[in-house]
Amino acid sequence: MRAVIQRVGHAVVTVQGLQVSAIGKGLLVLLGIGEADGQEDVEWLSAKLVNLRIFSDNTGKMNLPVKDAGGDILVVSQFTLHADTKKGNRPSFIRAARPEKAELLYKNFVDATTVQLGKPVREGIFGADMKINLSNEGPVTIIIDTKNKE
């Protein structure tokens, strides 16, 4: 699994001009699921995300996880995070999981993250053409790949 995590002041997802999800302060997570991913990736990434200390404490240092900062999480599926651009200029998405597998792991990730966070996680619509409006705070943007646990 690959995740692009952005600390946001707000994030809104729309589909065909209609708002489907929104959060205030928190994390926008663009989640790409690969063919080799499984439930162990779901559990590891969910725990890492909720406990990632990237919110400021009362001294201004990035020392708080989203759950302690009172933030929300919005997860949006994004298969293009598994693009292979080695050959030519047209990306290949052969490493991205097939939709049936990806949607199941996406839902499992949302559920696991809801449990870890202790409140509902917002989400986009799997497979939809979504528009995302956000205010990146900091800016803070972090990329995590469960196959390269750095």
Q: Strand-residue fraction?
A: 35-45%
Shape call: globular
Described by strand count, sense and barrel closure, the largest sheet is: 6 strands, mixed
Q: What is the name of the CATH topology?
A: D-tyrosyl-trna(Tyr) Deacylase, Chain: A
- SS summary, helix count: 3
Per CATH, the superfamily is D-tyrosyl-tRNA(Tyr) deacylase
What integer value in Å does the Rg equal? 15 Å
Uncertain segments are none
| Ends apart, CA distance between termini | 13 Å
How many domain units? Answer: 1
Can you count the beta strands? 8
| Multimerization status | single chain
The average pLDDT value, as a whole number, equals 95
CATH architecture: 3-Layer(bba) Sandwich
Helical content band: 10-25%
CATH C-level name: Alpha Beta
The SS-based structural class is: alpha/beta
From N to C, what is the helix and strand string? EEEHEEHEHEE
What distinguishing features does this structure have?
alpha/beta; six-stranded mixed beta sheet; D-tyrosyl-trna(Tyr) Deacylase, Chain: A; two-stranded antiparallel ribbon; 8 strands
